[in-house]
Design a protein that fits this description.
Elements: H1 3-6, H2 11-38, E1 45-48, E2 54-55, E3 58-59, E4 65-68, H3 71-103, H4 106-113, H5 116-127
Antiparallel strand pairs: 1-4, 2-3
Helix pairs in contact: 2-3, 2-4, 2-5
């Protein structure tokens, strides 16, 4: 193998960038799916209302149900929804970047391979979420 493969910014780094992009796409998708399962979008729970309680100014019967949302649950659900949105946005950007890597000329592909040291810390940030 020629020396250009193993030197910094060479063919090896360009291949590692493609593999890194694929890993990041997979990890962000997996994390967003787990967040959606753990924190479903409906943060509203039902609570039975007794015959003597009222909702607003209206008295209710014994079979009425009042929708209750706790403040802490709402904040957690809101944070999880924002994090899911950010992960999906990042995944979309990574997919565009992957498309560019697949269609660009070889010179640009090798030039983007030099970005590997700058991209690796972003994978660590996803690993620790």
């Amino acid at each position: 193998l020629p020396d250009s493969i193993l030197k910094r910014g060479g063919d090896h780094d360009a291949i590692l960038v493609v593999l890194l992009i694929d890993r990041l796409i997979y990890k962000t998708n997996l994390l967003a799916t787990q967040l959606r399962e753990k924190f479903p979008a409906s943060g509203v729970t039902e609570e039975k209302v007794g015959p003597d309680e009222s909702i607003g100014d209206v008295n209710t019967d014994a079979n009425s149900v009042r929708l209750v949302t706790t403040s802490s649950h709402s904040e957690i659900t809101s944070y999880a929804s924002k994090l899911i949105f950010m992960l999906q946005s990042w995944r979309l950007t990574l997919r565009h970047f992957k498309h560019v890597l697949g269609t660009c000329p070889v010179e640009l592909y090798l030039k983007l391979g030099t970005l590997l040291p700058e991209m690796v810390p972003h994978e660590y940030s996803v690993d620790y979420l």
